[in-house]
Amino acid sequence: QVQLVESGGGLVQPGGSLRLSCAASGFVFSNYAMRWFRQVPGKERELVARISADGTTTYYGDAVEGRCTISRDNSKNTMYLQMNSLKREDTGVYFCAAGCGDYEAPIDFWGQGTQVTVSS
Known about the structure:
mainly beta; four-stranded antiparallel β-sheet
C-alpha cells in the first residue's frame, strides 16, 4: 500500500522555522521525483519546491526562494522541507507528492497534508 505521510507542521511565530518531513512507503522511493505543495482555503494549490529522484536537482517557488531548503534521504525513504524566516503568508496545508521518473514527471501519489500556521 502506497503511503506518503507528512509531519512536522504546527504553529510558529513569524520569523520562526519548521522542518516538514514526508515519509514514503509502498513504492521505490528512489525512483520518484518529489514535490511539496501548499494550499490556502480559496486559493489554488501552489508548488513550493521539488527535488529530483537522486536529490541532485531542486527547484523553489518564488514565494519561498531563499527561505526554504528541500532535501531527501533515499536510505530513509523520506523527504524534508526546512522552512526559515516564516511569514504569515506561509500559512497553509502542506502536501508532499511523488512522480515516477524525471524531475517533471506527473504526480502519482499525494500525502494527506500537514497544517502550518504562522501567527503571533
